[in-house]
């Protein structure tokens, strides 16, 4: 229960911070910019060793936001380098996030075939 | 009330301008983002706990959780709920991995009429594509730097 509360708090705060960045920066940030920023930022923080403590603290509060996707990419790349050397640098990131990307493609395709866009209200 | 130009003193005009400006909703947006984003993360933690209880390790547990959340995000987008939620939640629906699924389904659905190859197949990556490109780039760069520091 405590874990779930912590995930709610930290995950919520990450979203709140991103919302403030969107609202307070003069340039228009689209969904794509926000997501690319989070993934890249999460990967860099993770490589510096600053993201793992947040995961220890918040669990899903840190792994569910897209910065956690970046964390998985970076950790996967570094772990694979340990196991396979230079080849691991190329394979590790994609391997670690393969489940997320594959499910996004599978379910994305299925839902797009099953449903039609709702008329704009 | 008769309209005359005399009433448009600078003071009145400023008040009129102020009343026409959109209300500052920054605090409200932030609160919505916090609650909706927090709920998705709490849901993720619940799913993660379930997988750990089923005997998956932390790494596989996180991957399985991501898969379930992607399904939830994709399904809610399909039935039209996610975009309604997103109007209020903003970053709260964008930041969690469900937002990634939403981006995939929304663009794929929108371009269905252009066919299943260049419509659904290509356009589903309108937003998700850049995420994968920059994610892949940063992971390889990080892997290379890590490799060079090891040797």
UniProtKB/TrEMBL annotation, chain A:
Signal peptide annotation: none
InterPro entries given for it? SpoVA
Parts of the chain that traverse the membrane: 6-22, 34-51, 86-115
Instruction: Tell me the Pfam families matching this sequence.
Output: SpoVAC_SpoVAEB
Superkingdom of the organism of origin: Bacteria
> Does the record carry Transmembrane helix as a key word?
yes
Q: Which UniProt keywords apply?
A: Membrane, Transmembrane, Transmembrane helix
PANTHER family, alphabetized: STAGE V SPORULATION PROTEIN AC-RELATED, STAGE V SPORULATION PROTEIN AEB
Write the protein's name. Stage V sporulation protein AE
Which lineage is the organism of this entry classified under, starting from the top rank? Answer: Bacteria, Bacillati, Bacillota, Clostridia, Eubacteriales
TrEMBL record, chain B:
Which keywords appear in this protein's UniProt record, sorted alphabetically?
Membrane, Transmembrane, Transmembrane helix
InterPro entries the record matches? Spore_V_AC (IPR014203), SpoVA (IPR005562)
Transmembrane segment boundaries: 62-82, 89-107, 127-148
Tell me the superkingdom of the source.
Bacteria
| PANTHER family for the chain | STAGE V SPORULATION PROTEIN AC (PTHR38450:SF1), STAGE V SPORULATION PROTEIN AC-RELATED (PTHR38450)
Q: What is this protein called?
A: Stage V sporulation protein AC
